[in-house]
């Protein structure tokens, strides 16, 4: 445990000494020199004891504050299956050789912006770093990680069954002092990353967080946007179902991160706030003319980056920063077991590339807002979320691409309700069945076109001769039922079944393994 | 108003600057003698290129220049009426030798990227990408036996020395000394031609009706609009897959080509003398002096000569410093040709590298029925024409043997060994592996609509006088059937 004692404030120490001096000075005036020496020694000992008591009281206060912060985090932690599913500071590092233990998995957002209390929680989630006198540098070092493996089997098209190490993520952080820390996450998607493999290697977070005062912190760099439940807390132990829900994938483009800076804080009565200035979206990346469907399975839908904001977010990869976006997020978690929050982001986008030789007057503005609520009475875990986005000034671009199967929508939205129940809880084992109903629409309205020209019937879905299928439509209603089974708070086995009303061929059975530490 | 790119402007400025520098260097002694400097004809590389482009005296026949086969009024393609109706140009010392490929349009050619295999074959000059740049490409016809037919660069320079006006323009920019080094002089001629094709507005006017429509200054007819819809629709025309109606990064405009290569199994054109057995000139029956040795044709090939694009028979010039890798042994690429721009396509018939099709309607009919009723090897159940069946041409219309009978066994302009190279996976081909005999992706009306749209890609539209639009003849009947209601963007 890192317990660097904070010295007594100068004023307090002076007052104690002054009081002792004044009392002793008059009472001991007639003592012999040897007695005076003994008394002096006792007085020094008393001072030392008092100083230690002060230090301990100070430490105690900090621990209390940290505990409160952790409780607040757990109370508002998103689809976190239950308080004890967040393995907050319970398990030491599995590897005894590790110089640092950081058992808190929510490293993707070490300090949830909405509940940020950086002054009391300088290390992600209240990390307890091992003391290692031989390596003082390591005292501030933090390591964490998470990952997940899927098996997905479309029930109507079993040849599309896939298994995937969807992501392996490693986090590295460093606490410079009680007010300044660095956090970063590096992700490998789809197991193998090379020019000829499907994987990606990406930096998911990379920022500095600095406590400015007791109420306000400053974060700068590449950070996750505080939208919805999942975006910041996307570790597999933190959500129900093998894969992330569609609303927080296709409408809120999890994992959505931007470069920029924000101010965040906690009012002390359970209201967290976070406001920032960030990079925005790039509509010049829009593909009006996909020759084949951008996805033909549910898994493909999540991985294809075809949703409006998935395909246009920039991820700070040589991001065009002509225009900046602004956002604000609020979250209230002052009532135990209840979290209510919302966020909005808006900003001009990099202009669409069409039509080619005619500047489109004005800018396209991308706006996204969401609201969410979660209630965890007893063994229940109930949540709901609504998100809606809009893109302005796309009429000319769409008019210039008639017949497109993929025009730019002017509005898109999605929502879900979810219920989970801890059915069995024994030691660290926990079984949590759940059900979720969600509706997403990646193009609820269009300007300059009546909408995507979606081919009907069996059509070629790849350049492979004879590869025929149905061109999916960009909205659906999805039922998901399944269960999370935790063997420890860090390890979860999952299973679920998903029904798709519109793209019925997407209906699938999934198995999953998730780990977070 | 079209926009000349920054690069082009910069090149013009550099060329002009170089002229001024040369002029000042050459004129120094005049000042010293106190006499007035001789008037210096200030020109640019582009102007030199233009002079060379149309100078027929630089050819062995004295009758052929670049502009002979790349006629400005035809979007710089050939003119079949001057080629005795052949799909390939005539050339050689006596203008009786025939070429091997339909002359491509040079309009928008300057946007072509260098050849690359990184993402599949892309870019490069000539229909097979064997020239690394516009300049190295432009040098080649001067010394090609069946074109301008000079023996070598020295002969080209000797003719340049006799062509007063062109020589004066040339030396004003490149000096006289280079004439003593003919290969270098020919390189400069290539650079001048490249400058002309890059800088002269006639090579990138972007003045089609479609361009004005994008700007809101023209209206597409309902039929043209429908044609554009079908052009973009991935399961109808799917034309945009290779001829993108969106800019691809080569320019801010859509160029209607992605500069990739494809093998689409075009029928053999027996009007090309090289494709016939006797290989004599159709002009005077003289033996064709240039017969491409069929070294790369499989032993069991049906015919002696095949044009297989990327893998031969033509090879890069030995003096092309950045020539693409030799692909003659990369048999999987045999039959691949560069995707051409569709801008001005309505005025550049005949179509494809072998000029096998005379009009766009035929092209589209062939596209959508290629594997339905023209190739029994791929489709054992061809669809008979008539009610309920193939709405287009009769079986075997497009694939013919040398005697004119239907040739349905394979893609007959490729050795049968390479039939598998043909693209059968994309719309508008209708892969017979899916049931066979299915309906074409386009109806006859939809083909008309797409042709109507393609006509709007013809440069020269004047928004102040739409009726004066010089639509080619093959567009006229379609225009007459289109609705009068215009559609603004």
Mean pLDDT of chain A: 82
- Examine the secondary-structure arrangement and name the CATH architecture of the domain at 4-70 and 106-203 in chain B: Orthogonal Bundle
Note the total helix count of chain B: 12
**Strand order within the widest sheet of chain B?**
1-2
Whole-number radius of gyration of chain B? 24 Å
Which structural class matches the secondary elements of chain A? alpha+beta
Question: What distance separates the N and C termini of chain B?
Answer: 18 Å
What helical percentage do the residues of chain B reach? 25-40%
Strand content of chain B: under 5%
Instruction: Classify the helix fraction of chain A into a percent range.
Output: 10-25%
Element order of chain B: H for helix, E for strand: HHHEEHHHHHEHEEHHHE
| Mean pLDDT level of chain B | 84
User: Would you state the CATH class of the domain at 4-70 and 106-203 in chain B?
Assistant: Mainly Alpha
Going by CATH, the homologous superfamily of the domain at 4-70 and 106-203 in chain B would be Cytochrome c-like domain
Q: What share of the residues of chain A does DSSP label as strand, in percent?
A: 35-45%
Distance between the termini of chain A: 18 Å
Radius of gyration of chain A: 27 Å
């Amino acid at each position: 445990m890192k317990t660097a004692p904070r010295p007594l404030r100068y004023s307090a120490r002076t007052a104690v000494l002054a009081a002792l001096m004044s009392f002793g000075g008059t009472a001991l005036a007639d003592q012999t020199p040897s007695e005076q020496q003994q008394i002096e020694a006792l007085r020094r000992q008393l001072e030392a004891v008092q100083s230690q008591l002060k230090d301990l009281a100070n430490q105690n206060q900090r621990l209390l504050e940290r505990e409160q912060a952790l409780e607040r985090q757990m109370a508002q932690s998103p689809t976190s299956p239950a308080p004890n599913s967040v393995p907050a500071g319970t398990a030491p590092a599995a590897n005894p050789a590790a110089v640092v233990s950081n058992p808190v998995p929510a490293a993707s957002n070490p300090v949830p912006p909405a509940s940020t209390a950086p002054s009391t929680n300088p290390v992600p989630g209240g990390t307890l770093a091992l003391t290692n006198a031989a390596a003082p540098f390591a005292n501030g070092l933090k390591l964490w990680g998470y990952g997940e493996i899927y098996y997905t089997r479309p029930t109507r098209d079993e040849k599309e069954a896939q298994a995937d190490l969807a992501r392996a993520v490693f986090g590295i952080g460093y606490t410079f002092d009680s007010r300044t820390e660095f956090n970063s996450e590096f992700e490998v998607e789809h197991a193998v990353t090379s020019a000829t493999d499907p994987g990606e290697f990406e930096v998911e977070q990379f920022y500095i967080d600095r406590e400015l005062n007791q109420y306000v912190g400053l974060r700068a760099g590449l950070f996750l946007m505080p939208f919805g439940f999942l975006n910041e807390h996307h570790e597999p132990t933190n959500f129900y179902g093998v894969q992330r829900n569609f609303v927080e994938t296709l409408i809120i483009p999890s994992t959505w991160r931007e470069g920029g800076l924000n101010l965040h804080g906690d009012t002390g009565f359970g209201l967290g706030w976070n406001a920032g200035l960030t990079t925005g979206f790039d509509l010049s990346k829009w593909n009006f003319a996909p020759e084949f469907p951008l996805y033909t399975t549910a898994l493909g839908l999540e991985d294809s980056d075809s949703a409006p904001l998935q395909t246009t977010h920039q991820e700070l990869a040589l991001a065009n920063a002509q225009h900046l976006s602004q956002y604000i997020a609020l979250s209230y978690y002052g009532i135990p077991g209840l979290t209510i929050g919302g966020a909005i982001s808006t900003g001009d986008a990099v202009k669409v590339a069409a039509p080619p030789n005619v500047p489109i007057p004005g800018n396209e503005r991308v706006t996204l807002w969401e609201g969410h609520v979660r209630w965890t009475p007893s063994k229940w875990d109930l949540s709901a979320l609504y998100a809606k986005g809009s893109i302005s000034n796309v009429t000319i671009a769409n008019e210039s691409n008639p017949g497109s199967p993929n025009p730019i929508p002017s509005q898109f939205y999605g929502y879900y309700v979810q219920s989970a129940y801890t059915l069995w809880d024994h030691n660290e084992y926990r079984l949590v069945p759940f059900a979720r109903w969600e509706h997403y629409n990646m193009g609820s309205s269009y300007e300059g076109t009546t909408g995507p020209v979606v081919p009907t019937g069996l059509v070629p879905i790849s350049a492979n001769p004879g590869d025929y299928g149905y061109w999916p439509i960009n909205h659906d209603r999805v039922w998901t039922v399944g269960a999370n089974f935790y063997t420890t708070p860090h390890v979860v086995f999952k299973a679920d079944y998903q029904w798709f009303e519109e793209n019925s061929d997407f209906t699938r059975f999934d198995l999953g393994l998730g780990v977070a530490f | 108003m079209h926009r000349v790119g920054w690069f082009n402007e910069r090149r013009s400025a550099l060329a002009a600057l170089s002229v001024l520098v040369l002029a000042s260097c050459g004129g120094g002694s005049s000042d010293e003698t106190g006499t007035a400097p001789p008037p210096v004809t200030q020109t640019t590389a582009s102007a030199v290129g233009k002079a060379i482009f149309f100078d027929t005296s630089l050819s062995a026949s004295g009758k052929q220049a670049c502009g002979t086969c790349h006629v400005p009024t035809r979007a710089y393609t050939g003119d079949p009426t001057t080629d005795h109706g052949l799909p390939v140009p005539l050339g050689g010392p006596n203008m009786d030798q025939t070429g091997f490929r339909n002359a491509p349009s040079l309009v928008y050619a300057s946007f072509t990227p260098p050849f690359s295999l990184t993402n599949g074959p892309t870019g490069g000059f000539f229909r097979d990408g064997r020239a690394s740049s516009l300049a190295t490409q432009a040098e080649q016809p001067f010394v090609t036996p069946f074109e301008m037919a000079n023996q070598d660069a020295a002969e080209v320079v000797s003719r340049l020395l006799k062509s007063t006006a062109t020589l004066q323009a040339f030396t004003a920019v490149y000096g006289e000394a280079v004439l003593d080094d003919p290969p270098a002089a020919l390189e400069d001629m290539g650079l001048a031609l490249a400058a002309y094709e890059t800088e002269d507005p006639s090579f990138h006017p972007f003045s089609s009706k479609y361009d004005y429509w994008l700007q809101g200054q023209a209206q597409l007819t309902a039929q043209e609009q429908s044609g554009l819809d079908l052009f973009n629709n991935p399961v109808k025309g799917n034309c945009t897959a290779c001829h993108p109606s969106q800019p691809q990064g080569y320019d801010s405009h859509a160029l209607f080509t992605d500069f990739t290569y494809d093998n689409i199994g075009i029928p053999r054109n027996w009007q090309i003398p090289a494709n016939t057995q006797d290989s004599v000139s159709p002009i005077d029956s003289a033996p064709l002096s240039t017969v491409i040795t069929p070294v790369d044709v499989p032993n069991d090939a049906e015919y002696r000569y095949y044009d297989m694009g990327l893998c031969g028979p033509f090879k890069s010039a030995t003096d092309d410093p950045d020539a693409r890798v030799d692909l003659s042994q990369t048999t999987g690429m045999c039959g691949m040709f560069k995707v051409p721009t569709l801008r001005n396509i309505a005025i550049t018939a005949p179509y494809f590298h072998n000029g096998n099709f005379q009009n766009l309607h035929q092209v589209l009919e062939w596209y959508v029925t290629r594997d339905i009723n023209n190739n029994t090897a791929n489709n054992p159940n061809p669809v008979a024409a008539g009610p309920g069946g193939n709405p287009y041409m009769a079986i075997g219309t497009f694939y013919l043997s040398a005697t004119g009978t239907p040739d349905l066994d394979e893609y007959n302009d490729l050795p049968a060994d390479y039939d598998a190279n043909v693209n059968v996976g994309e719309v508008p081909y209708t892969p017979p592996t899916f049931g066979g005999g299915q309906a074409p992706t386009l109806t006859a009306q939809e083909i008309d609509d797409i042709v109507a749209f393609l006509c709007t890609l013809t440069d020269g539209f004047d928004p102040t006088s739409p009726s004066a639009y010089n639509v080619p003849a093959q567009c006229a009947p379609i225009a007459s059937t289109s609705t009068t209601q215009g559609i603004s963007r």
